Amino acid sequence: MATNSTIETLLNRRSIRKFKDEAIDADTVATLETVAQHAASSQFLNDWSAIRITDPAVKAKMAEFGHQAYIATAPLLYVFVIDEHRNARIAERKGIDPDSDAFHLKYSYRFTQAQNDAVLALHAMETAAYSLGLGCVILGSILNDIPGVIDTLKLPKYTYPVLGLAIGKPDQEPALKPRMPREMQFFENAYPADGADTDTLTALDDFDAEVHQYYDLRQADRPVDAFSDQIATVSGQDVSGKTLLDKAAAQGFELDK
């Protein structure tokens, strides 16, 4: 493999869930936020925003929503959101009624674009943080209570939470989590047909064994389940109550269009 400092930073990425009780200085915060702004933005709509959470009470609420106490201890905590509210206000200045059918930024195509842009910005910030010697963990768990997040962060119409990001100086050194063989995840020209010669699961047994040898710091006394077992467990979990359409509709989005 070719390598440089950026590649090494990315290859050594790991989720950090325990941080030193040290504040992040203002220059570093400015750097991270500016890097996030330089991520790709579909059609230059700039249709995301991020809430920097400094109030301990609000951090505690995010930890409550995520069922993870360490969220409240993060020296730097962000929630990235889809933001068509700002664009709605801009469009309104140009004579377009955001509540009319003429305002198309509330429909599913733009919603997906904005979600992608928010994730790209978050990833840029995360990578920059790691390059500066900081540690991060991405927080999908806050979406356990989307209405709670919306209410706590006072998210207006045409906004929607995407992910959280906790950042701080690492106070732990977890092992690198195994990654599946490239041939299971990268294909050429087309998705391979299932069959003896091209089966994407050919290397699964070896990957299962490798994952089973990995120890997560959250359960350091036992190896993690094999990848196949994790997939089987998650595929059987009922998440039918974690719906998107109704909660997005409450924020003004029309995802059936």
Automatic annotation (TrEMBL):
Superkingdom classification of source: Bacteria
All residue ranges annotated as the Nitroreductase domain in the record: 11-169
Xref: Gene3D superfamilies: NADH Oxidase
Keywords for the protein's UniProt record, in alphabetical order: Flavoprotein, FMN, NADP, Oxidoreductase
Coiled-coil residue windows: none
A GO molecular-function descriptor: oxidoreductase activity
Annotated SUPFAM superfamilies: FMN-dependent nitroreductase-like (SSF55469)
Family membership: Belongs to the flavin oxidoreductase frp family.
Name of protein: NADPH-dependent oxidoreductase
Protein source organism: Bifidobacterium felsineum
